[in-house]
Amino acid sequence: MLLTTVALNAQKLKQNGDLTFLKGESEVNVSVVFDDNMKVGKMSEAEYVEKNVSERDAKKMGDGSRWLDGWNGARENFYIPKFVDLLNKVVSKNATFGNYPDAAYTVVFNVTRIEPGFNIGVTRKPAEIDGVAYFVKTSDMNNSLAEVTITKAPGAQAFGADYAVEQRVAESFAISGKRLGALLNKKAFK
User: Fold this and answer.
1) For the segment 114-127, what is each residue's pLDDT rounded down to a tens digit?
2) Are 25 and 105 in contact (CB under 8 A)?
């Protein structure tokens, strides 16, 4: 029964298009965007933010804006660096991914869903993210050459030490980068 549950909750990657155009590239630009219609749990991001800010301000005025600063800052401080770091660790022998605006190609990782999960000590639910990695020519960002859809990328830290939402979600981004890198090694850099 446990194996069935794990299989049902496993991260999935679906490739659409040929990625071999990346072979021979030493640098690939990375852009991570958060979709305007991104869901957080079962809510829109706007609803999720409103709920968290108002709940925190109801307990102590000002806590809501501090939480909001953390929520917005986590993207640049945790999520994007984790994604890029693990992507690079896996594909390091083939190419370097990062802030390379002059690179021939760019991967645009569009995040469409964040499930923040929870950890209350006794029970926990890992975070998950969904997104689509669009591979484009840097000079023509509107035409996708290939896409990799990532669903249910899990995020949790070992031994349950992931009480902060940022930690769990950052691990989802790390796993996404790692799995995308593994796919690129097989399909683009073989």
Assistant:
1) 999 887 777 778 89
2) yes
